[in-house]
Every structure is written in structure tokens, then in C-alpha cells.
Design a protein that fits this description.
It is a multi-pass membrane protein. Keywords: Cell membrane, Membrane, Transferase, Transmembrane, Transmembrane helix. The chain is an all-alpha fold. The protein has one domain. Helix 21 runs antiparallel to helix 22.
């Protein structure tokens, strides 16, 4: 039996946030499964804890994504180029099994490939993931049979990554475990999870965010370094962290995070850099030399211009645009009336990179999903953005079907695809806009309205500012939790609303 002390302590702990009480869309959606959660489900005695439910839902929805790829698994990957697009089930995984030498037992980065691509064009940790999947794939039977096995093995490994992401998000905000359902139920997440190997980097990044929320800055750095060894985008999170630690004076924690990231990245990359330099460099060379490609506003410009921009011009200009966005985020971080939450700035910098980049593959949405949930766990805004991403997901495959179907012209013509790109860009910018609004008007931040300062901020949570360029505002102080939790914002007491209004 629990002790009197533990019972008394738990009585003073705030209840977990219930989305069906604070979010109108979540409440309406819950009617499909019997309505908002009831009193008996909140007692904490059931095996069905929020984290377990989130993990199981994530696995279930991931499995539905595998079913969506079934037409390709049954033959569309192998018989005809356009059918894998018209059925919207394309994946890089089976094609690269043979195309990058895994079928022939070639070692990534060390063995040269026979085709146009001299070496594997992926970061080292992703290459290791691909190689491990190859070891687990039966190298017998027809090449089609092997490719099917390779995709299935990768799908099983990626399913573990998906569950890790959902659980990490559910546990990052201690009072908001049900926000993990936004990740688990995200339609674009299920549709794009097995297109490529991005989930590995996303899982490591989500785990890093969890470690930071627990105050484990060194573990955060190590995981972020590993994530950057799998994909480039996680390194951008160090920029917002630097700004927030500067504002809060948490230099020691930032130093530990930076050191952990550098050491972890070097530990993975140095052996390949030293013994297979050309192979290691291929990812960075390919990223630099790659021309304007699918999904970017640069493609709209290039396909509607008689003098399309050169690759060098796009590289330089895209870099400048990212730098300008980073400067804008820095100004926002240092001038905001309250120190922004870490997840908010992390989402903004990754979104800035995605919007300005010269290519947007449909699986890049995976980078943003956990960051979006931590930055703005509002079902309405999240679903608006997801609808835009699903529209783009369908648009790119229909466009590729159009370009590969010859005179039949099945699919979406160029102008239609440009509209799909615009929808994706507008959806991402919309979510950026509401996150910026939350930073400028903290009372509208659904995370802070429920009580607390920065639940994912670790040592930043509730810390006083030591360097502010704008007007200094006191850190929020919890007041008595009677009914709805309240937080003081610069002298004004605001009760967390129950109706989910913005």
C-alpha cells in the first residue's frame, strides 16, 4: 500500500493534461471511440497507461502504412515505372538494395559502386543501418524476392524507431503524455515512414529531446551527435539551444551538450573518414552538387523560367536564406517577452531549412512531426498542416506518374504539381506562424497555459533570464492548483482554460 507521505505528495501533484477537456477537436474526435476519457480511466491503476497506449497506437498506424505499400510489395516496384506512383506506394528501400551494392555484398563507403553513383550517398550511421538490414536479409532466390525481404526487414527496424519517437514525445512533456497520440496518428507519418531511412535520425533526435527535458545535457549531446551522423538536420538544434542557454546563463549545460554531440559524431565518422575518405565525402558532395529537385519553391521557379537558376546560385542563395531565418529566430529568442520554449525554436529552425532547401522529399515531413507536436500540441493546427502534407504526398506521386506514363499522361501535370508544392509550403508556414504567435503572446501557448514554463527545457524550465534584449519579464511561478492550474505571467494570473479555445 502507498505510504501516507506518497499519497499526500501525489495529491499535490497536478493532474495530467487531458486533451479531450482542453482541445475541442480532440473532444470531437474522441466520440468515435466512446467520448472523452472518463473518471475511472484516470485513476492510474490500469495497465493502459498513456505511454503504452501511444506506443501501441504508433505501431498499429505504422502497420497500416505498411498495408498502404502492399500494391508495390506485390509487384509495382518491379513491373513498370508508373504503377508505383499511381498507387502512391513508392519506396527507395527496395530499389537501393541492388542499386547501392547491398545485393552484391559491397561494403558501404569502402567498395566503389558500378553505376553513376560511385559510393553510397548517405551519412555514416544511416549507411550502417542499411548494412545491418542487408545482413538480416536472405541473399537467396530471385532479386525481386531479396528486395521484398530487404524492405520488410527495414520496415521492422523502422517500426521500432517509430515507436521510440512516439514514446519519447509522450514522455518529454511530463504532464502531457497524450500529445504522443499526435505523432502516433499523424497520417503523413504513416504514409512516408518507409520511403527512406529518415526515421533513424528522427528517433535519435526525439530521444535527445527527452534527455534534455530530464536535465541530462551530456546524454542529449551524445544522442544529437548520433542523430547528425544519420542525417544532417539535427545539428540545427544546437543553434536554438545556444540562444536559450545564453539568455538563461546555462553555459555549462550547453558546453556539455556541445561536447557530447561533437564527440559522438566524430566517434561514428572518424573511422570512415580515415579509411574511406572518398566514400565518406560522397554524401556531402552529392548534397552540394545536386540540382534543384522535387518539392522546393526553386523547382517552381526553374520550371517556369526560360533561364533557370544555376546550382551554384541556388546553393548560395538557399544558404543565405537559412542564415537570415536563423538571425530572425535569434532576434525572436532574445527579444521575446518570455524566453521561448526549446521545442518552439527547434521546430522553427528545422522548418526554415526545409522551406528554403533546394529539395523536399516527401519523407522530410518526418523531421518536423515530433518537433511540431512539442512546439504546438494543438489538434486543429496539427491536422491542418498534416492535410497539406498528405496533399503533397499524393501530388508528387501523381506528378511522377504523369512524367513516366508516356503519351498516356496519367497523373498530375506540372502546373498541378506546383500547386501541391505551394500547399506544402503554405501549410508549413502556417504552423510556423502560430508557433511565432505563441512565443510573442505566451498566454496563447497551450503548453504554458496548462502550467509551467518549458517542460521540454530541462535546466531552462523556470530559470531566470540573465541576458535579455527586450523588456525583462519574470519567470512564471506556479500558484495553488485548485481546479485548473494557474500561472502568473508578468503579474497577471491566467487560468488554464478547459474549452480548448485558442
Amino acid at each position: 500500500m502507498p505510504s501516507a507521505e506518497s499519497t499526500q505528495a501525489s495529491a499535490h501533484e497536478p493532474d495530467p493534461v487531458r486533451p479531450t477537456e482542453e482541445d475541442g477537436v480532440a473532444a470531437a474526435g474522441s466520440e468515435l471511440i466512446g467520448g472523452p476519457v472518463g473518471r475511472h480511466a484516470l485513476l492510474g491503476t490500469s495497465w493502459w497507461t498513456p505511454v503504452r497506449v501511444v506506443a501501441l497506437v504508433a505501431i498499429g498506424v505504422f502497420a497500416l502504412g505498411l498495408v498502404q505499400k502492399a500494391p508495390c510489395y506485390q509487384g509495382a516496384w518491379f513491373f513498370g515505372a508508373s504503377s508505383q506512383y499511381t498507387k502512391a506506394c513508392y519506396s527507395d528501400i527496395p530499389h537501393l538494395y541492388q542499386g547501392r551494392g547491398f545485393a552484391d555484398g559491397l561494403v558501404p563507403y569502402f567498395d566503389k559502386l558500378p553505376g553513376d553513383m560511385p559510393y553510397l550517398e548517405y551519412p555514416v550511421l544511416t549507411g550502417l543501418f542499411m548494412e545491418v538490414a542487408s545482413w538480416l536479409t536472405p541473399h537467396s532466390g530471385s532479386i525481386q524476392h531479396q528486395e521484398q525481404w530487404y524492405w520488410m526487414v527495414n520496415a521492422g527496424m523502422l517500426m521500432v524507431c517509430a515507436a521510440v519517437i512516439a514514446v519519447c514525445v509522450a514522455r518529454t512533456h511530463a504532464r502531457r503524455p497524450w500529445d504522443g497520440l499526435l505523432v502516433a496518428l499523424a497520417p503523413a507519418f504513416a504514409l512516408t515512414a518507409t520511403i527512406n531511412w529518415d526515421l533513424l535520425a528522427v528517433a535519435l533526435t526525439a530521444a535527445a529531446m527527452l534527455m534534455w527535458s530530464r536535465g541530462r545535457s551530456l546524454a542529449f549531446g551524445v544522442l544529437l551527435g548520433l542523430a547528425t551522423a544519420a542525417k544532417l538536420y539535427p545539428v540545427f538544434l544546437l543553434g536554438p539551444l545556444f540562444l536559450l542557454c545564453w539568455r538563461a546563463g546555462k553555459w555549462r549545460d550547453f558546453g556539455r551538450a556541445l561536447a557530447g554531440a561533437v564527440v559522438a559524431w566524430l566517434a561514428v565518422n572518424l573511422p570512415v573518414m580515415a579509411f574511406a575518405t572518398d566514400g565518406w565525402w560522397q554524401f556531402y558532395k552529392f548534397s552540394h552538387d545536386r540540382g534543384v529537385d522535387f518539392g522546393s519553391f526553386w523547382l517552381i521557379w526553374a520550371q517556369n523560367s526560360s533561364d533557370p537558376p544555376s546550382t551554384d546560385f541556388v546553393n548560395t542563395t538557399a544558404t543565405l536564406l537559412v542564415v537570415l531565418c536563423a538571425l530572425g529566430i535569434a532576434v525572436l529568442a532574445l527579444f521575446a517577452p518570455r524566453r521561448p520554449r526549446f521545442a518552439q525554436l527547434a521546430f522553427l529552425i528545422v522548418a526554415a531549412f526545409i522551406v528554403t532547401n533546394k529539395v523536399y522529399s516527401p519523407q522530410y515531413v518526418l523531421w518536423l512531426v515530433p518537433l511540431a507536436v512539442l512546439a504546438r500540441p494543438k489538434w486543429r493546427d496539427f491536422l491542418i498542416w498534416q492535410a497539406c502534407e498528405v496533399a503533397y504526398f499524393l501530388g508528387i506521386w501523381m506528378y511522377l506518374a504523369y512524367t513516366t506514363s508516356g503519351d498516356a499522361h496519367k497523373g498530375l501535370p506540372t502546373d498541378g504539381y506546383h500547386w501541391a508544392i505551394a500547399v506544402h509550403l503554405l501549410g508549413t508556414l502556417y504552423l510556423c506562424a502560430v508557433v511565432v504567435r505563441d512565443i510573442l503572446v505566451p498566454e496563447r501557448d497551450v503548453v504554458r497555459r496548462a502550467g509551467g514554463d518549458d517542460p521540454s527545457g530541462g535546466v531552462l524550465d523556470g530559470a531566470e533570464d540573465v541576458f535579455v534584449l527586450g523588456a525583462r519579464t519574470p519567470s512564471p511561478r506556479h500558484v495553488a492548483h485548485v481546479g485548473a492550474p494557474q500561472v502568473e505571467w508578468g503579474g497577471r494570473s491566467t487560468a488554464a482554460p478547459r474549452d480548448g479555445s485558442p
